[in-house]
Amino acid sequence: MTVRTRFAPSPTGFIHLGNLRSALYPWAFARKMQGDFILRIEDTDQERSSQEAVDVIIEGMKWLGLDIDEGPIYQMQRMDRYREVIAQMLQDGLAYYCYMSEEELNALREQQMANKEKPRYNGFWRPEPGKDLPAPPSDVKPVIRFKNPIGGSVVWDDAVKGRIEISNDELDDLVIARPDGTPTYNFCVVVDDLDMKITHVIRGDDHVNNTPRQINILKALGGQSPIYAHLPTVLNDQGEKMSKRNGAMSVRDYEREGYMPEAVLNYLARLGWSHGDAEVFTKEQFVEWFNLDHLGKSPAQHNPEKLLWLNHHYIQQADAADLAKRALPFAQNLGIKTDNGPDFVGVVNILKDRANTLIEIAEGAKLFYMGRPEHSAADLEVNVPEAIRPAISDFITELEAGDGSKAAISAAFKAVLAKHGLKMPALAMPVRYAMFATTQTPAIDAVISLIGIEETKERLQRSIKIG
Mean pLDDT, the chain, as a whole number? Predict the structure, then answer.
């Protein structure tokens, strides 16, 4: 048997981390089992669905590296197939026309609630042997209902929740086509899973209540139930269900804010799955380790601080040249012209250890490409005091005698500190301010090595008015 899984989002314009986790796990299982992963777009809600929303889903998956084997397959393009199946079900006595009007249905529900009964369709128009049905009313467009089995139970062994059993007496006859003939969600899902030979349905546990209805329809159509794994809800950092309304960020937002896709994937993987105590792992390791047995049974809670920590880790570990390519668009968005200054890869290399996001790298890079700062006399008097200027002059001399390497610059600092009896901050802070009009920079020896001896000399001399 070839394992076939699917991700079946509704394209309503917003996809958050909880949604993408529902793509990550079936993708990982398909890859682990050398099976197929299918993207199915459930776009029957035409009022809310849009191609732009589809693009957001596809871009988010591509950004995370979740490649697909089939799709995207659009439900709206399969309407003829759904109608064909419904027609066959009507012919085979598996479905029937129901002429109960909306008003009658509402009245029935109100009466049931008044009697403290569960509101449900009472099967009035359901054909049964020996049952006489009234003539269909001419002023009501019928829905089509599935003849749900009477008696017995629907039972399945959920890979996350364990054995689940629902009595068929709890289920009424589901509407599978609306008055205008449009098939309903639960019916379309079953036909799709059947036609696409889906073997494992890994999805959020908000679908648990749909599962017994879907299993009954699937069996009626001669299909075999897939293995179900219903994932607990992802909660936001306040403990509420993650949603746009509750402040969840879209996947695009994480990309725009400079998160690394490797970090987001690693983080998502741990939102409901574990492999021992492993917290940091590659995508390849995740696929190798993934199985359904280690899916969590309790709701996972979003932890922004942990995600930021992971992002910092991946930035620290990244190759500087690759990281520079990723950070470059963020630098360009800030108006930084990286061709007018030191090598951008070198700049990124000394910034990455302190950065949490690619935006922070870009913001740190401003320092190296903003040109020489304009100092006021008052600011220089405070930040580059007269007493320290002889040491800065000696520092320039030491720099000129070296080869411009980080080691030579560090040696120049040590020589001047020893000569003048100074501590490092007493010299480094004025040097930073003289060069950049700030006392906050990465390691100053690395910074000077990137800027270059000549440019450093010009900036220091200009600030202390030497030569």
Answer: 94
The band of 45, judged by pLDDT with boundaries at 50, 70 and 90, is: confident
Domain boundaries, the chain: 1-68+232-317, 81-177, 320-369, 377-464
Tokens for 310, please give them: 């992971």
Q: Strands 95-98 and 143-146: what pairing?
A: antiparallel
Q: Which helix (H) or strand (E) holds 306?
A: helix 304-317
Tell me, which fold does domain 377-464 have in CATH? Answer: Arc Repressor Mutant, subunit A (1.10.10)
Q: Residue 459 phi/psi, 5° resolution?
A: -70, -40
Query: What's the pLDDT tens digit per position in 124-143?
Result: 999 999 999 999 999 999 99
Q: Is residue 197 a known part of a binding site?
A: no
**Is residue 112 within 8 Å of residue 63, measured between CB atoms?**
no
Query: What are the φ/ψ torsions at residue 231 (nearest 5 degrees)?
Result: -85, 135
Angle, helix 424-436 to helix 444-451, in steps of 10 degrees? 40
For the domain spanning 1-68+232-317, the CATH number is: 3.40.50.620
Assign residue 335 a region (left: φ > 0; alpha: ψ between -120 and 50; beta: otherwise). Answer: left
CA pseudo-torsion sign 93, 99, 104, 106: positive
Pairing of the two strands 227-231 and 200-204 = parallel
pLDDT tens-digit map of 59-109 = 999 999 999 999 999 999 999 999 999 999 999 999 999 999 989 999 999
Superfamily of segment(s) 81-177? Glutamyl-tRNA Synthetase; Domain 3 (3.90.800.10)
**pTM for the whole thing?**
0.90
- Side-by-side strand order, sheet with 70-74: 4-7, 36-41, 70-74
Site of tokens 């500087």: 320
